[in-house]
Amino acid sequence: MNIKELHTNLSVSEQLQASDIAELASRGVRTLICNRPDGEGADQPLFSEIEKAATEHGIKCHYLPVITGKVGDDEAADFGKLLLADEGPVHAYCRSGMRSTTLWALSQAKQLPLADIVATAKAAGYDMSGVAARIAGERGELKSLKTYDVVIVGGGAAGIATAASLLARDKTLSIAIIDPADKHYYQPGWTLVGAGVFTPEQTMRDMASLIPNGADWIKAAVAAFDPDSNTVTLEGCRLIKYTRLVVAAGIKLNWDGIEGLSETIGRNGVTSNYRYDLAPYTWELVRNLKRGRALFTQPPMPIKCAGAPQKAMYLSGDHWYKNQDINNINIEFYNAGAVLFGVADYVPALMEYVKKYKAELKLNHKLVRIDGDKKTAYFETANADGGTDIVSREFDMIHVCPPQTAPDFIRSSPLVDDAGWVDVDQYTLRHKRFNNIWSLGDVCNAPNAKTAAAARVQAPIVAANIIADRQGTHKIAHYNGYGSCPLTVERGKIVLAEFGYGGKLLPSMPKWIINGTKPTRAAWFLKEKLLPPIYWQGMLKGKEWLVKPVMDDDA
């Protein structure tokens, strides 16, 4: 018996046997609801058998049979009444638990946000996306809007760049970009905000100013996907229809994934360049620290901009070095991974700066807890016996990179792999199961580095492949996994890491201009002066400078 919790007072499961009742009773279940008609399966016990065993354990029983695929509004209402009427934990069952979960979802349509219903069911192993529109209809709020040629979920770098590249190829396309945010951020700039090079305002624009001409901006959050009916359901229960879908929803920073972090971030010397409002606090802490201990942390992969945690360490160390405070400050870098950087060719240059700033590397150390009031961080690390130990370290400042996942509404959708990322072919970025869906940027499961540079290359590829699909051509663009990480090792010099799938080096410039395995001033000039305008005026405007895809025969 596989019991799944939907609520503190409700669990569901597949078909019960009489022998399962004792376990339910031991869990405190006081009410049983059967949603499977008698005689549906040859190996199915009768409800009367289940009821007899339940009665012996003091469990009240209800028979509310529903034919598979025909969950009605009346049955859902009756299910809801049973949940309200009976005291104590309730357990419902059918053949697989799906009908019971559907009844629960419909019964809660007027009480809970749609996204919460879908996510709760997904966490229990039940996909409610197919009934999301119906749930919205039960709330009396469903509004069907026009069908778009392309709907893009996400108004970040990947989403806007894809829309712009599509319209550059075909201005007649009807395109909608769905995103609830008012502001758009150039997130690669936050590392430089944390070092006092940029101001926060330099990294922000109004979203409305960036939506490409010819695209509609739907300012709303997505609640659910139904790829079988080519629809996206929004919060507020609006239904958007599409011919082709692009999912570019970004990544979720899981601040709650580290115990105590949410309660202390932004004070007590706890900061992060991964948030717009906190990067200035990083620079404040760095400027004011003259002696003590500074910790920098990196969580398990995947994360966006995998070099950012150590960039903060290098730029901070550079400030202390130039202000002759470096001998009074202990720098420690705690990485949950086993190596400093995932592409070995760049490690020697980075290690020279680790030595220069006298930083102590702590590999295989995962930050699990912070006590801000006591200024103490706790790390999990493997011990010699194959188990784990928790080690603590006091700090004067700590720069934290939070663990990261796909957004909740993505992880609860039918679009994802087992790890919760949108499941695409890593070369074409087309969904593996739904041929009219593509995904790019941080949210997809292609095994590339999650960087803005990757999205800049991916967007034209997705646009070209969508156009090719519309035209029925056999030519297609392929993504080689390109990503770039400008590792800011000191103010004025960068190790420009550029690589693709398998760690293959993919330099975009000749070595005499920029040797990516060495720190260069040219790479710093690129990062500080050239990349921001390339982002705002190139990438987001559909200008495919140096990234125009090559169309090859579809193998």
Automatic annotation (TrEMBL):
Residues 148-268 form the FAD/NAD(P)-binding domain. Coiled coil: none annotated. Residues 4-110 form the Beta-lactamase hydrolase-like protein phosphatase-like domain. Pfam families: BLH_phosphatase, Pyr_redox_2. Gene3D superfamilies: FAD/NAD(P)-binding domain, Protein tyrosine phosphatase superfamily. InterPro entries: BLH_phosphatase-like, FAD/NAD-bd_sf, FAD/NAD-binding_dom, Prot-tyrosine_phosphatase-like, Sulphide_quinone_reductase. It comes from the Bacteria. PANTHER family: SULFIDE:QUINONE OXIDOREDUCTASE, SULFIDE:QUINONE OXIDOREDUCTASE, MITOCHONDRIAL. NCBIfam families: TIGR01244 family sulfur transferase. This is TIGR01244 family phosphatase.
